[in-house]
Amino acid sequence: MNRKGITRREFLKGSAATAVTAAAMGLLTACSTGETTNQTTPKPETQAALKWNEAPAKIAEDQIKETVETEVLVVGGGGAGLFAAASAAEQGAKVLMIEKLLIHGTERHWLGAVGSKAAQAAGVDFDKQELVEELMKYASCRADQKLIQLWADRSGEMIDWLADLMAEKVPGTKMHMEWDIGHGSHGSYKIFPTMHNLQNDETHETVDYFMPVVDYIKSLGVEIRYETPLVQIERKEGGRVTGVIAKNGEDYIRINASKGVILCCGGYSADKEMLKELNPTAYKSITSTDSHGYNTGDGIKAAVWIGAAKDDDGTAMLFDRGAIQPDRFIDGNWDDFGYLIFGSHPFLKVNLKGERFVNESLPYDFMLHAGSLQPKRLYNTIFDSNWHEHVKQMYQIGCARIEPSQSGGLLQIFDHESAEGLLHGLIEGGYVQQADTLEELAEKLHIPADQFVATVNRYNELCAQGEDEDFGKESYRMLALDKAPFYGARQGATILCTLDGLRINTRMNVLDTEGEPIEGLYAAGDCSGGFFAHNYPEYIVGVAIGRTLTFGRIAGEVVASL
Q1: For the chain, first and last CA: distance in Å?
Q2: Of 325, 328, 379, which is closest to residue 357 (Cα–Cα)?
Q3: Are residues 110 and 176 in the same domain?
Q4: Packing angle between helix 438-445 and helix 449-465, nearest 10 degrees?
Q5: pLDDT-above-90 percentage for the chain
Q6: How far is CA 414 from CA 137, 399, 401, 402, 420, in A?
């Protein structure tokens, strides 16, 4: 990936022009029906020729150099894995965690939860059932409502546990509740105050929680083996999962788990072939990635090989921030791009014909879905030199914020100063075009000038009258483009992760293709499914990581109790 030496500090400051070609730091991946086949015996083809859902040959016994015994095995050291290990160890279970990297996965700071002590202290109160139903609508009711209800009922408990732990481990840490959600809705899209994050009570800086949790689980006796990737799951014929085969260097090891295996290994956003098959709509819209290269669907694949069921619907977390140079198209190159934070704001959007095509007040992936129907599956974000004032009126939330929250939350990728620095770098890199006239901007964006100018003029007329007669955008977001220089960028989707995974029940037990629990096998986080379908509900901030951490704790609790 073309990062050009960018650091998070440089990215946040926006001071370096080289920042623009970096993938965002992750503060924040022929069509298939989604049906899986379960191959329990090796096929005659070589392993390299196998599809993702076809089982490779079993590892021969003479290749296994070590056997390890534990009660609970956690596969993956990201958020779900850490919280599962903590919960299981708190119950007194013997816990082993394996992680294929030298470090733990990337933590997310936008923690979505309902009913926490922090929320209560902030006076946050809303109809929880309405939230559950909103999430079901986002999923077209192709989600398991019992799982969504479980998150709504127990996520507050998870947040309280983390708040208490961090207050003890990192003095001065406080769980902050971001109650400011602007107007409470953007057009037809209801916004719920769900976002929490850990801040220092005095400096208000964001506090990382991964390493304190790692230290905590180690203090409870959890053993962690790094550079130990999952290879295969071991299951008795038609029966219980007994453990896994993993790899350490060139050697294979067998890990037997008497109580159960918890898969917390993430999604498959870094496996392009798997993504192309399971989510072709997303794949055909991607211009850049903020996904980590290790998210290759290891847990999903291994579970499917032994009979597990996977979600039918491909679902990805897509951000509308992947700027490319105006002479490029979607070409499978996800490395050379500019991180366009302005792409997530409801500025004017025009297609490659210079035409407006949708109400710009859409959640991230909804905007991208609309854009994918336009010529070349791309569109342009247009703004002017008044952008500093305009973003103040747009009431963006979550990781799209540039304007600080009135709640006092300071968790932002960019503020005004760093966004200005980012813009300069994007211009230097050729990802954002700057022009003194609309005609010049059209020429630089390679779109028809006459149509583009007519579109902007019409848009400005609607802004002046305070009503979007063409597409229905909210009046407070109808802000005229009339101050040179003008800016524009060609863009598509940035993939962060996938959200379709293994089917589970409310005990985090992985289900087989008949809907029956596979004894001894559990899953949490992005390798688990049943919670999302097609879309990521951006306006319910933090729900993805909130689900991950909550279900990780539940999985550890359940397996330890067996």
Answers
A1: 44
A2: 379
A3: yes
A4: 130
A5: 83
A6: 31, 9, 7, 5, 9
Residue type, position 256, single letter? N
Boundary (domain end) residue, out of 470, 495, 520? 495
Per-residue pLDDT tens over the stretch 148-164: 999 999 999 999 999 99
Q: In sequence order, which ranges of 62-127 are alpha helices (DSSP H)?
A: 79-90, 117-121
Assign 185 a pLDDT band (cuts: 50, 70, 90): confident
Question: DSSP strand E in 268-333: where?
Answer: 286-289, 316-324
Contacts for 168-172: CB closer than 8 Å, 24+ residues apart: 169/212, 169/215, 169/216, 170/207, 170/212, 172/200, 172/201, 172/202
Quick check: bond before 537 cis, omega within 30? no
Domain-located, residue 460: yes
For residue 198, CA distances in Å to 87, 179, 402 come to 20, 14, 19
Domain that holds residue 310: 69-315+500-562
Are 207 and 290 in the same domain?
yes
Distance CA 412, CA 108 (A): 12
Which structure tokens are listed for 139? 């999923």
Torsion over CA: 182, 187, 192, 197 (sign): negative
Q: Would you state the structure tokens that stand for residue 403, as one six-digit string? A: 């304007």
Task: Find out whether 468 and 462 touch, Cβ atoms under 8 Å.
Answer: yes
Number of structural domains in the chain: 2
What CATH number did the domain enclosing 305 receive?
A: 3.50.50.60
Residue 169 lies in a domain: yes
Angle of CA points 253, 104, 234, to nearest 5° = 30
Given this model, what pLDDT does residue 188 score?
80
Residue 509's DSSP bridge partners are 522
d(CA 300, CA 265): 8
Distances (CA, A) of 403 to 14, 232, 363: 15, 47, 18
The verdict on 344 and 481 lying in the same domain is: yes
> Three-class SS of residue 244?
strand
Q: What is the DSSP letter of 47?
A: G
The strand pairing partners of 64, in sequence order, are 252
* Domain final residue pick, 495, 530, 548: 495
Sign of CA dihedral 183, 186, 192, 194: negative
Residues 6+ apart with CB under 8 A from 237: none
Q: How far apart, in whole angstroms, are the C-alpha atoms of residue 550 and residue 302?
A: 23
454 CB-contact burial (10 Å; exposed 0-12 / middle 13-18 / buried 19+): middle
pLDDT digits (tens, 9 = 90+) for 482-504: 999 999 999 999 999 999 999 99
Q: For the whole model, what pTM was predicted?
A: 0.91
Q: Which residues does 49 contact at the CB level (< 8 Å), separation at least 6?
A: none
* 328 in the same domain as 308: no
